[in-house]
Design goal:
Elements lengths: L8 H20 L7 H22 L5 H17 L2 H12 L6 H30 L8
Length: about 140
């Protein structure tokens, strides 16, 4: 549904907000959970939401393209497998090479962002563990 643009922005925003809660409830209830499909679904919803918001500013923007590109970016980041995510999403959607360049750029940007945020978190964690010197200079 995210790929054909039939969902409204309000429904997409609600799905993006409620999906983690539903997943947590299912996992807490003992259901087995995977990573591939939830990452694709979350990415597609975020992409469709972004594409829908962008189409308000620029009517005619292809919401399905945004959903496909974001699905690949989220999958690449969560699985730490960018090449696999690009090939998998392009193969699943049969878009051919039409979305290859935007997908590659989005996956690269998502990977760089994840690396930067991870490095920042690790730096902050190490800074919190360092004890100030007790000896005065």
């Amino acid at each position: 549904m995210a790929f054909d643009g039939s969902l409204t922005l309000l429904v997409l925003a609600a799905l993006v907000a409620l999906k983690p809660l539903a997943a947590a409830a299912c996992l807490a209830g003992g259901a087995a959970g995977g990573l591939l499909t939830p990452a694709l679904a979350t990415g597609a919803m975020l992409g469709a939401l972004t594409g829908g918001a962008f189409s308000l500013l620029w009517p005619g923007a292809p919401i399905a393209g945004y959903a496909i590109i974001a699905a690949a970016a989220v999958l690449a980041t969560t699985q730490k497998a960018p090449l696999c995510a690009i090939v998998l999403v392009l193969e699943f959607t049969h878009t051919g090479l039409a979305l290859a360049v935007p997908t590659i750029l989005a996956v690269a940007g998502a990977g760089l962002t994840a690396a930067f945020l991870t490095a920042s978190r690790d730096t902050a964690r190490r800074a919190g563990r360092v004890r100030p010197s007790s000896a005065a200079p």
